[in-house]
Design a protein that fits this description.
This protein has 325 residues and is of the alpha/beta class. An eight-stranded parallel beta barrel has the order 1-2-3-4-5-6-7-8, surrounded by four helices. Strand 4, helix 7 and strand 5 form a beta-alpha-beta unit. Helix 6 crosses helix 7. The radius of gyration is 19 Å and the shape is globular. The two termini are 20 Å apart. The structure holds phosphoenolpyruvate and magnesium ion (MG). Magnesium ion binds next to helix 10. It catalyses: L-histidyl-[protein] + phosphoenolpyruvate = N(pros)-phospho-L-histidyl-[protein] + pyruvate.
């Protein structure tokens, strides 16, 4: 198995019937790139930039951020890098940013909601400028977290366009092919994906949050973990709607939640037609090895049965096991 994986490091991810899927890695800091490259990732599908803020005693400066983004873009040598703008709040606190105490932080003031408020405006613009300046060093894609409404996406995109125009006016070089997309991790955005798909460049499905919000089950709470069900047909149908909506507008759809590297979910997601799978680097080679053995037409049949015939998560799991045998 070691020898097979060694060979797979340099290979693209191709199924038994010759279809390509992109296997990407999730990272938290530029230091993670060693693992990313040692495991043959084809891209960085999620760079969680909040660690830049959490590991710093005060707001990271524009130059601090520029250097981190540049290091990741250069380290990936032209391969795509999806950078997520700050996802602060919820469970991720900053000692130097005074956020109000909340009863339900996961349903509260977090991520893009902070970026679009007066408290976060300066932080957000600084981050966008750092990203835009770094864009000339590789293949940058920018992604906004926790988008619930189109109005939020439009507001974030407008700030992005403003900062971009300012830099261009100052004579700063900025790449002209930066894709700007969103995470789909709030059910409202998943349901309305057909509308979002007309305006965004891509989707990345954040199943860690999407599952907790759809099932109304805290992703950290053991008492309700039995309800945290990636294979529930309701979740699969939401994912399918997101993927189909992206494709209808000629856009791509990826996934950067834990589910993307889950060996039971992967055959279903292939069948649904997900384009990019972003996971912890250590899951990439085993997933590439699994995909090599699978036929997409059969996986489409599997996914259709899971979506249409199964009532429960247990039935979906049994169905996948049946196909595995
Ligand atoms: C997710 O919600 O699936 C996700 C990838 O983001 P995070 O785990 O950082 O909330
Ligand atoms: Mg999330």
């Amino acid at each position: 198995q070691k020898a097979e994986w060694e060979k797979l490091k340099l290979a693209k991810t191709v199924t038994a019937d010759g279809k390509h899927f992109e296997l990407a890695a999730n990272i938290g800091t530029p230091k993670d790139l060693t693992g990313v490259n040692n495991n043959g990732a084809e891209a960085v599908g999620l760079y969680r930039t909040e660690f830049l803020y959490m590991d710093s005693p005060d707001f990271p400066t524009e130059d601090d951020q520029y250097n981190a983004y540049k290091a990741v873009l250069e380290g990936m040598d032209g391969k795509p890098v999806v950078v997520r703008t700050m996802d602060i709040g919820g469970d991720k606190e900053l000692p130097y940013l005074k956020l109000p105490h909340e009863m339900n932080p996961f349903l509260g003031y977090r991520a893009l909601r902070i970026s679009l408020s007066s408290l976060g405006d300066d932080m957000f613009r600084t981050q966008l400028r750092a990203l835009l300046r770094a864009s000339v060093h590789g293949n940058l894609r920018i992604m906004f977290p926790m988008v619930a409404t189109l109005k939020e996406f439009r507001a974030a995109k407008a700030l992005y366009n403003e900062e971009k125009q300012k830099l261009v006016d100052e004579g700063v070089a900025v790449a002209d092919d930066i894709q700007v997309g969103i995470m789909i991790e709030i059910p409202a955005a998943a349901v309305l994906a057909d509308k979002f798909a007309k305006e965004v460049d891509f989707f990345s499905i954040g199943t860690n949050d999407l599952i907790q919000y759809t099932m109304a089950a805290d992703r950290m709470n053991e008492q309700v973990s039995y309800l945290y069900q990636p294979y529930n047909p309701s979740i699969l149908r939401l994912i399918k709607h997101v993927v189909d909506s992206a494709h209808a507008e000629g856009k791509w759809a990826g996934m950067c939640g834990e589910m993307a590297g889950d060996q039971t979910a992967v055959p279903l997601l292939m069948g649904i037609g997900l384009d990019e799978f972003s996971m912890s680097a250590t899951s990439i080679l085993k997933t590439r090895s699994l995909m090599k053995k699978l036929d997409t037409t059969k996986m489409q049949e599997l996914a259709n049965r899971a979506l249409n015939d199964c009532d429960t998560m247990e039935e979906v799991v049994a169905l996948v096991q049946e196909y595995a045998e």
